[in-house]
Amino acid sequence: MILEQVIESKTNFKEDKDSEKPIRSIVKSISWRAVGTLDTILISWIVTGKIDTALSIGAIELITKMILYFFHERVWNTIKWGKR
Predict the structure, then answer these.
(1) Is the Cβ–Cβ distance between 44 and 54 less than 8 Å?
(2) Contact indicator for 51, 45 with CB cutoff of 8 Å
(3) pTM for this model (two decimals)
(4) Are 84 and 40 spatial neighbours (Cβ–Cβ below 8 Å)?
(5) Cβ neighbours of residue 17 under 8 Å, at least 6 residues apart?
(6) Contact 83, 16 (CB under 8 A)
(7) H/E/C letters for each residue in 6-74?
(8) Can you give the pLDDT at residue 22?
(9) Where do the DUF2061 domain residues begin and end (predicted)?
(10) Most buried of the four, 6, 21, 45, 81, by CB within 10 Å?
(11) Closest-CA residue to 83 (of 17, 37, 29, 25)
(12) What values do phi and psi take at 27, rounded to 5?
């Protein structure tokens, strides 16, 4: 089923490259980081037993990983490998 979708997907590199705007990457990074940060806060709370420490770790992690993810997405959007 997945293989059929890949085979039937007939887009070219230009269409793929232009299909994802930077704002989409921003929104995706925010939504993913919300999930990731909640996970980090929970794990930090379990490990430290302190909610204030867990929230501090989560806040720092939220900002840094969102920035890293945005640039990671933009770089991968320019790589031709694996695209049709």
Answers:
(1) yes
(2) yes
(3) 0.57
(4) no
(5) 77, 78
(6) yes
(7) HHHCCCCHHHHHHHCCHHHHHHHHHHHHHHHHHHHHHHHHHHHCCHHHHHHHHHHHHHHHHHHHHHHHH
(8) 82
(9) 26-77
(10) 45
(11) 17
(12) -65, -40
| Residue 61 token pair | 């992690």
Give the tokens for residue 77: 């959007």
If 0-12 CB within 10 Å is exposed, 13-18 middle and 19+ buried, where does residue 73 land? middle
Enter the tokens of residue 48.
Answer: 């430290």
Span 30-70, pLDDT tens digits: 888 889 999 999 999 999 999 999 999 999 998 898 888 88
Provide the token pair at 45. 């709370």
Structure tokens at 16: 């793929």
